[in-house]
Amino acid sequence: MIAMTTPEQLSQIIKHLAETVAQEFSSLSLVDLNYKPSPDSWSMLECLEHLNRYSRYYNPALAKAIAHNTCENCVPSITYSWLGRKSLDMVRPQNMKKHKTVKHMNPNNSQLGRATIEEFLQHQQELAHLLYDAKKANLNKKAVPVEFFKLLKLRIGEALEFVTVHQERHVQQALRVKQLLAKQAAA
């Protein structure tokens, strides 16, 4: 059973993620930011680039869905479809099972720099604005096409939660990479 999440709760998570990324990664060298524990794993910047690729799709899709589905007395709670529940369960940080990402969303072996962090933080600002606007939207409207199969649609609330939870998952992954780097440096 998924507990209902509100746009306000999601906003707090987004704010925390932006602060964490700014504090934990901004001062690291590019060599450190691109450190990979193994050839098939992602570096800290690759984790953030993966999220940037999703944000490039979902932020505009959410903006369009929210703008076209406003209502006067919206109920702030959402109900979950099977697709929404499945999508959320897959990306929750507590779900440590690895999932293969679609090829164009996989940043493995990308040449990345500090602009990756700046773009991530910009996407967080955009998402914070979307969450504010979502307070005046019908969160239960199926209006956000799934990135890899656009015939399927998530409800606006599900999509907002999916994007947020997905970001939590990969920021935590990037933090684990930073810990591995610190252990290696200490050894």
Give the helices and strands, then pairings:
Elements: H1 7-25, H2 30-33, H3 44-67, H4 82-91, H5 115-134, E1 142-146, E2 149-155, H6 156-186
Antiparallel strand pairs: 1-2
Helix pairs in contact: 1-5, 1-6, 3-5, 3-6, 4-6
The largest beta-sheet arranges its strands as 1-2
CATH class: Mainly Alpha
Instruction: Give the beta-strand count.
Output: 2
Major beta sheet, specifics? 2 strands, antiparallel
Radius of gyration: 17 Å
Relative helix content: 55-70%
How would you spell out the order of helices and strands? HHHHHEEH
Low-confidence stretches: none
InterPro entries: DinB-like, DinB/YfiT-like
Protein name: DinB family protein
Organism: Pontibacter anaerobius
Domain DinB-like: 22-174
Could you explain the architecture of this structure?
The chain is mainly alpha-helical and 187 residues long. It has one domain: Four Helix Bundle (Hemerythrin (Met), subunit A) (Up-down Bundle). It is built from six helices and two strands, in the order αααααββα. The protein has helices spanning 7-25, 30-33, 44-67, 82-91, 115-134, 156-186; strands at 142-146, 149-155. It has a two-stranded antiparallel sheet. The chain is elongated. The model has no long low-confidence stretch (mean pLDDT 90). InterPro entries: DinB-like, DinB/YfiT-like. Residues 22-174 form the DinB-like domain. This is DinB family protein.
